[in-house]
Amino acid sequence: MKTARIARSAFKGLGRNKLRTFLMMIGIVIGIAAVTVVVSAGLGAQKRVMERVKKFGLESLMVFAGGGREMGPTSGQPVVTLKVDDAEALERNIRAIAGVAPFNRKGEGTVNYQGKSINTGIWGVTPSWAPVWDWYAAQGEFISEEDEAQMARVCVIAPTVQQELFGGANPVGEQVRIGNVLFEIKGIMQPRGTSPRGGDMDNRVYIPLSTFMRRVANVDYLTGIKVRLRSIKNMEQTVAAMQPLLRERHKLAPGEPDDFRIITPTEVRQVAAKIAGTFNIFLVLVAGISLIVGGFVITNIMLISVSERRGEIGLRKAVGARSRDIRLQFLLETMVVTLTGGVIGILLGFVGAAILRAVTQMPVSLSWEGAALGVVFSSLVGLIAGTQPAKRAATLQPVEALRA
User: Fold this and answer.
1) Strands 181-189 and 154-157, how do they pair?
2) Which residues pair with 184 in a beta bridge?
3) Sequence ranges of the domains in the chain
4) In this structure, are strands 97-113 and 116-125 parallel, antiparallel, or unpaired?
5) CA-based nearest residue to 341, from 68, 27, 99, 104
6) pLDDT digit string (tens) for 68-122?
7) Are 185 and 22 in contact (CB under 8 A)?
């Protein structure tokens, strides 16, 4: 029996029982649609990870107060090991450093304006913050050297704060109350989006570091120091030079652990990827379960089909069909079902991914990788699910099959 005739027989076998064919196909459609959504979400998450790393700065380092490996403070207790003098020493003694931006922050503070209020992050920064972060005021001005020297009561707000308190109007020159202190708004920051850890970088208020340390928080230590390098090639050498300098300044004895943490873009990427990967793992499990269930459904329905078509199989064998022809026919039937279901699943997956992006604002990237994986997975499911029914059909003896 020629391959073309076998293929025609396979299509006829599927066409004779459309409901059975639909039931076999629906599991694959759901599974491949889930796989497509997973791949699209995964690629989108990777894209967002790289965007967050770029926001951190590929040529940047971060020095945090306290030991360990986590970004930012590890507990609610203040860590007082990092000083403004440390930032100045780094910039003065390490040639690879292009600039430093020491900062302190209050995780959540209340900003009030004419009866409206917003809970936001309060950051004390120096004028070097803008060039080191490559993040400037979109309207008005950023904090100046004069503001820092005079402990001025001025602030620069981010777009979320502007929207919540002023409804998008230009608030430059207006006064807001932070705690019990009035501050004049000097400018509005450019929108920045989410941080590497997923926080809203547009929900912040920036005030001079000296004002923060003396008038607001009454502290003499820093939360951290952002360090911008002259070249990304100097990353490892700069870290190696920063560690002994800070250890010497903090009078740490040999063998004593660091009381600071140096975070590189690689670690930022790992943190962001870990956050994005949690959701992708869940989607992979859902897609995998759907495909497994779909494969079992196809196998069982095809086994039922073999039992119901014993007479047809026996007649074909009696007129000259070989066992491998019968095996090929049933494999083709399952492959047609799974590939057709795969194509439909890919299309539905793209639609689902687009809806997911529109409804949840999740990062989703539609690409050919999702379609390719859908075709590959549906083909594998078809081969695996169809093997046992095809084998059973091929081993039937003509006389016994016709007798049944």
Assistant:
1) parallel
2) 154, 175
3) 3-52+270-403, 80-258
4) antiparallel
5) 27
6) 544 444 445 667 889 999 999 999 999 999 999 999 998 788 999 988 999 999 9
7) no
Residue type, 184: E
Residue 271 is which amino acid? V
Residue type, 291: L
Work out the burial of residue 112: count CB atoms within 10 Å of its CB; fewer than 13 is exposed, 13-18 middle, 19 or more buried.
middle
DSSP state of 212: I
Cβ 96 vs Cβ 240: under 8 Å: no
Tokens found for residue 85: 């003098």
Place of tokens 């050498």: 237
| Calpha distance 250→230 (Å, rounded) | 26
Report residue 401 as tokens. 């099959």
Task: Compute the radius of gyration of the chain from its Cα atoms.
Answer: 32
The token pair that represents 118 in the structure block: 């917003």
Q: How do residues 25-72 score in pLDDT, each as one tens digit?
A: 777 787 778 777 777 777 776 677 666 666 667 788 889 988 654 444
Tokens of 220: 């003499």
Give the closest residue to 389 by CA, choosing from 314, 323, 299, 291: 299
Q: Quick one: which of 111, 136, 125 has its CA closest to 212?
A: 125
Which residues are registered as beta bridge partners of 117? 112
CA distance 384 to 392: 14
Structure tokens at 3: 């391959």
What residues does 200 pair with on adjacent strands?
194
